[in-house]
Amino acid sequence: MTSILFVYAKGGPPLEYALPRVAAHAEVHVLALAPLPRATESVWRPGCASVTTAPPGEGLELVDLICSHARRVGAGAVLTLSEYAVVAVARASLRLGLRGAGERVAGARDKRLMRRIWRDAGVPVPGFTEVHGPEDITTAFETLRPPLLLKAAWSAGSTAHLTVWNEQEAEAAWKTGRSVMEASSAQGYAELHAADAGVSDFLLEEIVTGEAGDWFDGDGWGDYVSVEGIVAGGRYHPLCITGRMPTVAPFTERASLTPAALPVPLQRRIEELSRAAVDALGLDTCATHTEIKLGADGAMWLIETAARFGGVMTTRQVETVFGLDMIGMLVRELLGRDVAYPERMLTGGEGAAGSLVVLAVDAEGRPWSRLPAWDFEAVDWPSLVAPGSRVEPVREHSLAPGSPVPPYEEAGGANSMAALCFLTAESGPQLLADCGRIVAALPDALTSPHAGPGTSTARTGSCAPSADRSTPGSTA
What we know:
By secondary structure, the chain is of the alpha+beta class. It has helices at 15-23, 41-44, 59-72, 86-96, 111-121, 134-143, 167-186, 197-200, 264-281, 314-322, 326-334, 428-441, 444-447; strands at 3-8, 27-32, 48-53, 75-80, 128-131, 148-152, 162-164, 202-206, 224-232, 235-244, 255-258, 286-294, 300-306, 352-358, 390-393, 419-425. Helix 5 packs across helix 9. 55% of the residues are buried. Mean pLDDT is 90; it is low at 449-476.
């Protein structure tokens, strides 16, 4: 069987889900640049031909490391599912003469370059100014309409995103953002190809107004979506759309939901904008995750495109609803094998699936009045979801039972998550309602009289309790 080098770093879909799908198509050799998830090792380890851990280094040193391991195992392809390793893996693949994201991969990683490319291509993006120093902040408020959103150019999971109304707030936010990025880097959530890139590189952009009610069938949906896809030899294949619940201020994701309750004609409009966005980036062979803001009267703006699959459980959601094993499809594409792509993006499916992030804020974004301990098994999940719905923990992205739920910090984004839950339901509206009830019930459901560490109230067929959990990961 052909060998593939799987470069593991923080972020991306859980290894217990992803690695078996890679191993179904190739002999997997893992190069781990971050601590591997031990809580789920019994699931992912049997699919590995070898596992090597190594400090990541940076820049050319990291590319050298990946290339040397790829040559040692005779890899026919190099794959990563982490945002932070995408650039390094693409550079290594180019040097090795293997399929990969290509020479222009940085345009799908550096938000400043991405927006310049899109602006020049004539696709809709919010007004923006790059921030390298205080003088750029002054320029931003002279040319853009506040409030503005400060973003770290290399961040993921809404980390170091802050809303500002004037120059003084922006200067303070810039300092906070750099501090947050430094803390994230210390935890392994940082760009690996250039270790200092995320600390000082920022932009300010206009906050465009979304209007979910003009797009969705029913209430409760967030005002943006993502298009999941694969670029194969420069040809873009959009696969499906994933919806959201409304974000937590400033723009932290709370839940990803598949499918999105959008009329088919509107899905086709979104499909075409995603095609224009991805085509402009000039990627070669990689996954794509393109986020699009939905405004009033059919307006749309591009938020970002990543040269990897969506984070959390997006790949599992798509497989559950649409029957597409996107990870397996990408592996086959990287290895030069035949892949059956839909002629057009899929707009229907069976049932619904979603990823719900546990954050210490209520439905309106207000902080919880108390911070209980996290314990999945202490919650009476069947009482919170509809008949036929199921809830299970994602151990790789959840705190250990008994750990205190962290307070939500706007600048920290997804780094404030306590846990991640995977849900399935009979329909998209039912899934959305299930998530809404769960958000409303927490934290009381964690501190109700019947609850207690190690006490499971799960009912067969309604939820799947966890025996072990590790630490949360970045949701991107």
